[in-house]
């Protein structure tokens, strides 16, 4: 039938803050809040916004297209944009300067892409501000080395196997990122997909 279209629907716009969503910062230091976005449909006049504790806007920028760097619309004087969108990743990270204890809380990186019928997506980082940094990783490593002793080779082998498995899982997940694919020659992305999963993905308004 000419009117029949088959779609493979997946979330085209995705925002990520990395593997861990918690960041620890020393009082009076500068802290990086990482964020990147991906879209396999491209973007035009994309707007990204950083919020503190869901409501307070601390940075907003606009990106015309992939060939241009973001331009700030508004930002808190203590917030500095350190990302880039003309390079490999669409990096929209910021640095919070002169961190205080009152800065501890939830930071949300929100992206809206008009090219995808105003698709929206966001990711969240939790910032903890401490008086003094305590290193625990080195101690744990020394204990492991002390306990394992002669079995250290097996531990390294296990770590390598784990890394390979994680790499395979990541590659499998990357392969699942699909865009809207139509069986017809018509481009239906402009018309929107009424009742499709794509529209249900939009986050609820605060």
UniProtKB/TrEMBL annotation:
GO terms for molecular function: sodium channel regulator activity; transmembrane transporter binding. The chain crosses the membrane at residues 140-161. GO terms for cellular component: voltage-gated sodium channel complex. It is a single-pass type I membrane protein. One of its GO terms (biological process) is regulation of ventricular cardiac muscle cell membrane repolarization. It comes from the Eukaryota. Residues 1-18 form the signal peptide. Keywords: Disulfide bond, Glycoprotein, Immunoglobulin domain, Membrane, Signal, Transmembrane, Transmembrane helix. This is SCN4B protein. It comes from Pycnonotus jocosus (Red-whiskered bulbul).
């Amino acid at each position: 039938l000419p009117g029949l279209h088959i779609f493979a629907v997946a979330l085209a716009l995705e925002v990520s803050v990395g593997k861990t969503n918690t960041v620890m910062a020393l009082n009076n230091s500068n802290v990086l809040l990482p964020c990147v976005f991906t879209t396999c449909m491209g973007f035009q006049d994309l707007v990204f916004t950083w919020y503190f504790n869901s409501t307070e806007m601390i940075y907003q920028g606009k990106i015309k297209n992939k060939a241009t760097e973001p331009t700030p619309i508004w930002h808190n004087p203590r917030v500095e944009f350190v990302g880039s969108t003309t390079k490999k990743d669409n990096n929209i990270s910021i640095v919070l300067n002169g961190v205080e204890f009152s800065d501890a809380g939830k930071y949300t990186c929100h992206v809206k892409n008009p090219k995808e019928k105003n698709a929206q997506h966001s990711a969240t980082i939790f910032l903890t501000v401490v008086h003094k940094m305590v290193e625990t990783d080195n101690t744990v490593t020394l204990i492991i080395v002390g306990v394992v002793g002669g079995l250290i080779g097996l531990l390294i082998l296990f770590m390598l196997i784990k890394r390979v498995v994680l790499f395979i899982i990541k590659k499998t997940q990357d392969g699942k990122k699909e865009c809207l694919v139509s069986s017809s020659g018509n481009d239906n992305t402009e018309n929107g997909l009424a009742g499709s999963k794509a529209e249900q993905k939009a986050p609820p308004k605060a």
